[in-house]
């Protein structure tokens, strides 16, 4: 489990992370989202003790990362896939990491195989493609068989097969009861991978909720109801207008915002209104995310 309490980091006049209170729980994938410059990498660096907080604390299972005697066996992380010694082979890179944390060399071969790098274990990291570097970074995160895993943009540079592989890996790590905290800008991928979402903007917490709740909360999630009889259409429309955020008529359909589908069905039943169709049109995570972060985008372009 990762716990942040009032976590704050300022760089000169910039509040990169601003009083963040958060618990990242085990047994699920938590997606960490936010526009460029929102403070995601800075937060992850503070969890790993690579940056000192200006105020507040970041704890892993109740202790700062640096206080764990064998940190790689507690937390595995992929922060910057390019942070590799270019002349070291993949295997030697991992052996050096293993030695520094008392991890047996047998784990090195096991994780190289897990990430599909067995054919290139003796190739120098400097000759790796972006995707191979990502895989090696993920191997490093898995090396100590840690309970907590953090990945900053893990699918960056991966081909579709690699993207799917990362998705399945994250899901299986969470299913084993581990804490999986992963940042990404790929909303369609996060919708498939994450159970819980943490959204930040300008260093502050915007949302911390299950994926389904974030999507349902979007004003773009609507209920569509088809009422062929014109009188019934008008009766239901009037009743819904009293409690919905918005009701639009499109041909014989009513498009309703802000009322759950169950309530629309119950109201129709109460009023004796005959329906030919009743369903929810869910927003995509991307739509929900854009709405949540509209006020926090620092580097946007006018549209
Ligand atoms: N070492 C540093 N010195 C000064 N400012 C920094 C430093 N590191 C980050 N910042 C600033 O802190 C803010 C948050 O940056 P951070 O990299 O954490 O954001 P991010 O959410 O990871 O962004 P991205 O999605 O673009 O990777 C930005 O305004 C950034 O310019």
TrEMBL record:
What GO MF terms are annotated? ATP binding; ATP hydrolysis activity
Q: Name one Pfam family in it.
A: ABC_tran
Question: Which Gene3D superfamilies did the record assign?
Answer: P-loop containing nucleotide triphosphate hydrolases (3.40.50.300)
Q: Which family does it belong to?
A: Belongs to the ABC transporter superfamily.
Report the domain of life of the source organism: Bacteria
Protein name as annotated: ABC-2 type transport system ATP-binding protein
Question: Which species is this record about?
Answer: Kribbella rubisoli
Has UniProt tagged this entry with the keyword Protease? no
Residue ranges of domain ABC transporter in the record: 2-227
Q: Please name the PROSITE patterns in this protein's record.
A: ABC_TRANSPORTER_2 (PS50893)
Keywords recorded for this protein, A-Z: ATP-binding, Nucleotide-binding, Transport
Show the SMART domains listed in the entry.
Answer: AAA
Has keyword Nucleotide-binding? yes
């Amino acid at each position: 489990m990762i716990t942040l309490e009032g976590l704050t980091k300022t760089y000169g006049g910039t509040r990169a992370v601003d009083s963040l209170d958060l618990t990242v729980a085990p047994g699920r994938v938590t997606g960490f989202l936010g526009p460029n410059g929102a403070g995601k990498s800075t937060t992850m660096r503070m969890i790993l003790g690579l940056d000192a907080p200006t105020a507040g604390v970041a704890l892993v299972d109740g202790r700062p990362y640096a206080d764990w005697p064998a940190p790689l066996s507690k937390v595995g992380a992929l922060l910057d896939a390019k942070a590799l010694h270019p002349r070291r082979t993949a295997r030697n890179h991992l052996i050096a990491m293993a030695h520094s944390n008392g991890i047996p060399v047998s784990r090195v071969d096991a994780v190289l195989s897990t990430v599909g790098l067995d054919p290139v274990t003796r190739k120098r990291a400097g000759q790796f493609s972006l995707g191979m570097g990502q895989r090696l970074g993920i191997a490093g995160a898995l090396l100590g068989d840690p309970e907590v895993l953090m990945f900053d943009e893990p699918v960056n540079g991966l081909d579709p097969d690699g993207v799917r592989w990362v998705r399945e890996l994250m899901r299986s790590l969470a299913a084993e009861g581990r804490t999986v905290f992963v940042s990404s800008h790929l909303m369609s991928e996060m919708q498939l991978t994450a159970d819980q979402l943490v959204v930040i903007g300008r260093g502050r917490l915007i949302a911390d909720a299950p994926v389904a709740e974030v999507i349902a909360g979007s004003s773009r999630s609507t209920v569509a109801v088809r009422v062929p009889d014109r009188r019934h259409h008008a009766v239901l429309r009037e009743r819904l207008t009293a409690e919905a955020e918005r009701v639009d008529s499109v041909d014989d359909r009513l498009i309703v915002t802000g009322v759950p589908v169950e309530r629309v069905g119950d109201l129709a039943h109460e009023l004796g209104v005959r329906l030919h169709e009743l369903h929810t049109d869910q927003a995509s995570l991307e739509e929900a995310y854009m709405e949540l972060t509209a006020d926090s985008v620092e580097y946007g372009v006018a549209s």
